[in-house]
Amino acid sequence: GRGLFAKRDFKAGDLICAEKAFVLPGYFIQDRSSDCMLYSLGDGTAAPRPGALLFKELVQKLRWNPSLRKDFFELNDGGYWKANGWEVPDGEDIPVDIFRTELIRRYNCFSVPLRSATLLTLPPNTNPELRNGFWTHASYINHSCLPNSARTFIGDMHFLRATRPIRAGEELTHQYVSPDLDIDARQAKYNASWGFTCDCELCGVDGGMEGSVRRERQRVFEELKDAVGRVPATVTPSRLKKIARGLRDLEALYTNDTPTSDAAAAADPYAHDPYTHLPRLALIHPTLYLTEAWRGLGNTDKMIEYAEKLLRNFGIFTCVKENRFVVERNCGLVNVEGVRALLYLAEGYGAKGQDGLAG
């Protein structure tokens, strides 16, 4: 995208924009007649059913509605038309070049769940059935791993809400995809899919960490992930406490143990812990597991403890003030797992009779 910017201030939770889809194919999961693939002879790529059906409907809509072509073909096509096209005289219809249409689809479309509500009822790490949709205005928004807005969908409507205060003139950002744990892997994905390198604060801090620390973080994360996957059918408190010790080992890799002088600490308060106000991506998966495991064992206090940690690891900092649950600041990720943590907290506070907090 070329970027969209706020024309006025927004508070956290404010609706920034609502937009009806330019194209959103409708189909049922069981509709096997719509199974198809799209192969592009232009660059040798392939897209599964969601992308193929969106491409088909985009071509049809553009073919029969010449007045819609200008806004659509102004979107990013990766430089295709500049290299292969020509100047279209005023008053002449813009041609529907199918390779250009496919590139614009690929760079600008959104993945949409069939029903957003089902995301809250699916087990963790489940891949739901998705559609591909196209919203022209929203396509201009650029990516950040630490976005200031979050998108949701109801039917073919796209809603963008502020996740923290946004000042007039500030660029609006959202997540194209959830960031990978490894900085090199996610930057490679951004470059391969959209041709950019993310320069958000999280990428800056991750990229500034020593390679040995990042490799050790990845190693411990994979060990924890494997341990979680090998948990027997009967989960015991002792087993969970062992995984919690592994989580603490992983937490230690997010701090800097190099001694600093008082003057250095005053000059850079984040020198000891550069993630003190940022998400800690490697901790999310094991913290989510422990939250749900303690919930399964009926330990309300432990469930609440780890649900709060889960929010913190997403970069959402909370506290309890005068019997109210308060989000002090959010510089992180707002997604379905964060909503799940809030639901668990409400359940836990309700079970303890703290109805004010639960509300």
From TrEMBL:
Pfam families in alphabetical order: SET
Transmembrane segments: none
Domain SET: 1-177
Organism: Massariosphaeria phaeospora
Protein name per its UniProtKB record: SET domain-containing protein
